[in-house]
Input
Amino acid sequence: MNSRMLAVLRALVGPMLALAVLALAPAAHAGSLEVLLRDGSTWRGELNDTVEARFVESGVELTIVGRLVKAERLYVQIDGEIGGNKVNKTIFHADLRSLRSTDGSAPTGTATAPGGTSSKPASGTAGPGAGTAAPGGDVGSGPPQKGKDGYLVSPKKGVFVLPLEGTVGIGLRHEEIEAIAAEADKYGPGQIIVLIVDSPGGLVIEGDKIHDSFKKLKDRHRFVAWIKEAISGAAFTALHCDEIYFQSVGTLGAITMFSGQDAIKGRELDAWLDKCSQVAEMGGRNPIPVRAMIHAPLLASYDKDPVTGKVTWYDTMQGATVLSNEKDNLVFNASTALDCHFSDGTADTTEELAKLLQLPEWYEISDYGRKLHADWQRTVKQCKEEVPLIAQRLQFKGSGSGDTEEVLGTRINLLKQLIQWWQRAPNVMRYELGVPEKDALERQIANLQRQLAMARRARQNAGN
Output
C-alpha cells in the first residue's frame, strides 16, 4: 500500500475530519442474486433463501445451513447454524467452496456451470489445477477406509505435501504446518510430511510460533524438508525437520536475526545462537555449521573420512574443508550440504525424492496440503488487492450526492471490511500493509456509530 493511502487510513483513527461522500460498494439486498463460485459455476437465488454453504476457516472445512441475509461483492452473510450453534457468519468468496439452496426438499437456487449451462447446485469442487500433485505425482482419490485401529488407511504407502512459500509469517505460517499434521493424524502416527520450502525468510515472531509447533508435532510424524530456497527464518523452519533434501538449485542458511536495521548483538545474539543450536540437535544435526549461519565471525570446517565418510566438525578453520570464514554467514548449496552430510540427498523430481525416502513410488495420500497452501496464498493476494481499494474509497471526497447518514454508514461499512481482513490475515495487515490495528478501527467505528445515532435523532426531531 502506498504511503498516501496509509496516511489516510491512519488519519481515520484520529479526530474526524469534515464528512465526505463515499462511493458505495455494489451490493445486492433485494431481488435476484448471483454468486460466482471457485469452480466457475454461478449460484442464483434471492435474499432470505435457505442455503447450505461449505467454506474454509483456518484450514478447516465447515458447513453452515441458514438464511442468506446479505450478498456483497466480496462476501456473503448467512444467519444459521454450524455444528448446532447459532451464528451470523460472514464468508468471503475466496473461502466459499459451495453454495446451494435448501428450501424444503427442492432447491430454489441453481448453479450454472462454466460456459453457461444449467447444472445441479455447485458441489464446491476446487477449480482445475487447484492443489494438484507435482509433475509425475499421484494423488489419492475416493473415500478412505478405516482400519481396525480406528485410523484411516491409505491404499499405498505415501506422503502428505505442504508447500511453504513466501515471507515467513505472511505466506509461510505455523497454522498450515499444524493443519497438515492434523490431517496426517487421521492416518495414525508416523506419517511422512514433506514441506516444500521456497522462502527468503521473514518475521522473527513467526519463527517462535513455528518452533513451538514443531516441538508438539515432531514426536508424531516424520517431517521432511525439500529445499528450493530456505534463507533466514525459512532455514530455521527447515532445520526442525528430521530429514533435509535439496533441489539442485537449493540454498539454505544466513539465519541472521535483526533488530530494526541492525543484526542483534550481546545477550540477544547469545540466546539466538543457543536456540538455533537446540533446533539443529532436534533435527539430529551438528550445531557448528548452524551457528556459522547466524554470526559471520563464527567459523565452520570439517574433515571427512575417505573410507567411512564420517564427518568431524570444527568451529575453527582447521578442517580440510572450510565452509565459513569470518566475513560471511554460511549458506549451503546442494553440493556443499550433501558432501558434509548436512543434507540427506538431492532431488529435482518427486520420483527422485521418493527413492531417497525409500518409497516404491511417489504417492500423495491426499491433496489437502496443496489445497491448504493454495487457499492461503489466494487469501494473501486478495488482501493485498482489496485493502488498498478500501483505502482508496475511504480517501475519496466527492460532493453533493450523499447526506450525513449515508456518509457515516458508508465509513462504518468500509472500516468493518478492514476489520474482517484483520480477522482473516492479521500479519498481512500489520506487516505488509501497515493498516492501523483492529482495536483502533473498532474505536473509530464506535465513534462513527455515535455520530450516526445523533444524526438520526436530529433528523427525526426536525421532522416533528
About this structure: The first helix runs from residue 3 to 12.
